[in-house]
Design brief:
- With 561 residues, this protein is an alpha/beta fold.
- Among the domains are: 9-104 and 253-379 and 449-470, TIM Barrel (Alpha-Beta Barrel); 113-162, Alpha-Beta Complex (Oligo-1,6-glucosidase, domain 2); 487-560, Golgi alpha-mannosidase II (Immunoglobulin-like, Sandwich), CATH 2.60.40.1180.
- The chain is 27% helix and 17% strand.
- It contains 16 helices and 23 strands.
- A hairpin with a 7-residue loop joins strand 16 and strand 17 (501-507).
- The site of alpha-D-glucopyranose (GLC) has 9 residues, from loops.
Length: 561
């Protein structure tokens, strides 16, 4: 099957990410579940969604929200059982919605039977599925794990194992052909069930640098970030090609890789005609800040270098469109809400959410929406570390305290950057718990304080809300007279001399221009073409005088030109 965007069943679909723990709690235990998702398929259909990606629902001790899997071929009881999964697949099929699962194969859980056996029997086949090393003088190298601390854990004596994420997520050793075969069998087990495909977690990390060398310390802990030694390392292609040939190629499935850090020159290997995957997320513009070893070392996002950020986005679009299809997004379960990343708090409002949506939705690629984005959800304003479940946030909090910040300062950073910002329960209505869990139940994470006003029931009743705006963007992309242009048209940046502006054209059988202002005051833009029609605008008032367009603060306007 070809990977080109204009081929394959997935070409004309909008994808939506569900974080199952927080979507809908059908059985009233405080955690979202598969039956809850099934009960909301009509809501997703109404929005116009054609693909749903589920964050992991496999059996898991939930050390990292399910990204630590202890049985790849079973459903965690928190979410239901295999019959519920089969029901979800069948009900989704009736509505022409394809389900993608999360394929987490860089690591598993330390509670997986493979790892348990490896611990008990160092000479077993299973021990060879992991990265064990004997090291008499402490950890075998100075790599820092992505969740903080050494990437090695001692299991007694001189024996260590590698974990690039938490110590409860031992890395799988892809050099071992027997391990690779186990993964291939598991992938086929799911595809045989009629899955639409997979979102593939942390896949760029499966190859580690030969010799596992230490590096020069980049922080006061004497360690070095493991990225340079474990991300897109030469030789990874052998594993990814084998995986594709033995699994995906045999099915009509779509694969979406989480492959941050792949340079534009190598996109062809990943998503070209013979690439490893159908598409991959474009992380190039997903966050404007770069924090070093802790959030307190981040540059303030509102003083970020807008021009550099914009140029990265443009460069990525220009490279990708020549090669294949990127997956575009502004939110997922690993980030705070988008307005928090890109716009100062004083300016947050539904119109800003619309503008941010407009900015990425008509780019070249396949758009993903993260649950709640279509309601214009904001960060829930956490005030105490006790409200946080996320392992990575807790680590950042500890690092901040260790570096001398007060608990209040450390908490302020967590409220701003925590992944749990996007993981609070989905607000369905204004009843207790936002209708996520039945009244009287305490959900696993606190309900958003704004649930009485920002919820699906209220939002879907509005003609001019964020939901209606997303619905219209989806209609424009999939079935309108502009669909061909938005799906396949050529991307070109325009008006690059303008400050605080994302502006581009897409040219197919028509030409549209998308202009998104990040300025907090109105401005006039001299258009380099004639505007034939306003296709969409984040604020109703659009003033065009000759070739001068007035953009209101944070307004987006899409024109046919
Ligand atoms: C990916 C997931 C993230 C998880 C990590 C480890 O980045 O998106 O949520 O913590 O992989 O599996």
């Amino acid at each position: 099957m070809s990977n080109a965007i204009n081929k394959g069943w997935w070409k004309n679909r909008i994808a939506y990410q569900v974080y199952p723990r927080s979507f809908c709690d059908a059985n009233g235990d405080g955690t979202g579940d598969l039956k809850g998702i099934t009960s909301k398929l009509d809501y997703l259909k109404e929005l116009g969604v054609g693909i749903v990606w589920l964050s992991p629902v496999y059996r898991s001790p939930m050390d990292d929200g399910g990204y630590d899997i202890s049985d790849y071929e079973d459903i965690d009881p928190l979410f239901g059982n295999m019959a519920d999964m089969d029901e979800l697949l069948a009900e989704a099929k009736k509505r022409d919605i394809k389900i993608l699962m999360d394929l987490v194969v860089n690591h598993c859980s330390d509670e997986h039977p493979w790892f348990q056996k490896a611990l008990r029997e160092p000479d077993s086949e299973e021990a060879g599925y992991f990265w064990f090393a004997e090291s008499p003088d402490g950890p075998p190298n100075n790599w820092r794990s992505m969740f903080g601390g050494s990437a090695w854990e001692n299991v007694g004596g001189d024996r260590y194992y590698m974990h690039l994420f938490s110590k409860k997520q031992p890395d799988l050793n892809w050099e071992n052909p027997k391990l690779r075969q186990r993964i291939i069998d598991m992938v086929r087990f799911w595809l045989d069930k009629g899955l639409g495909g997979f979102r593939i977690d942390a896949i760029v990390h499966i190859k580690k640098m030969e010799g596992l060398p230490s590096g020069p310390a980049d922080g006061p802990d004497g360690m070095v970030g493991c990225y340079a030694y474990t991300r897109n390392v030469e030789g990874i292609g052998k594993f990814l090609t084998e995986l594709r040939e033995q699994t995906f190629d045999k099915y009509e499935c779509v694969t979406v890789a989480e492959a941050a850090g792949v340079p534009n020159e190598q996109l062809v290997d990943y998503i070209g005609e013979k690439g490893y995957f159908s598409t991959m997320f474009d992380f190039s513009y997903s966050e404007p800040y770069n924090y070093g070893h802790g959030w307190h070392t981040a540059k303030d996002p509102y003083e970020w270098d807008f021009d550099a950020w914009r140029d990265t986005l443009y460069a990525s679009q220009l490279s990708t469109q020549k090669i294949g299809c990127g997956a575009t997004f502004i939110e997922n379960h690993d980030y705070p809400r988008a307005c928090q990343k890109f716009v100062p708090e004083k300016d947050h409002c539904p119109e800003v959410q619309k503008m941010l949506g407009n900015m990425y939705f008509f780019l070249f690629g396949m758009p993903f929406i993260y649950q709640g984005q279509e309601l214009g959800m904001t960060n829930p304003r956490f005030t105490s570390i006790d409200q946080i479940d996320d392992i990575s946030t807790k680590n950042h909090y500890r690092t901040a305290l260790a570096d001398g910040l007060s608990p209040e300062e450390a908490m302020r950073l967590c409220a701003r950057y925590s992944r749990d910002n996007a993981r609070v329960p989905f607000p369905w209505d204004d009843s207790e718990n936002g209708g996520f869990s039945p009244a009287g139940v305490t959900p696993w994470l606190c309900v958003h304080p704004d649930y009485k006003t920002v919820n699906a029931k209220a939002e879907t009743a509005k003609n001019d809300g964020v939901f209606a705006f997303y619905k219209e963007m989806i209609r424009l992309r999939t079935v309108s007279e502009y669909a061909e242009t938005i799906q396949n048209g050529t991307f070109a940046p325009i008006l690059q001399g303008e400050k605080q502006l994302i502006a581009y054209t897409r040219t197919g059988d028509k030409t549209i221009a998308v202009l998104c202002s990040f300025a907090d005051s109105a401005r006039e833009i001299v258009l380099p073409f004639e505007a034939k029609k306003v296709v969409l605008a984040s604020k109703d008032e659009v003033k065009i005088d000759g070739n001068v367009l007035t953009l209101l603060p944070y307004q987006s306007v899409t024109l046919e030109v």
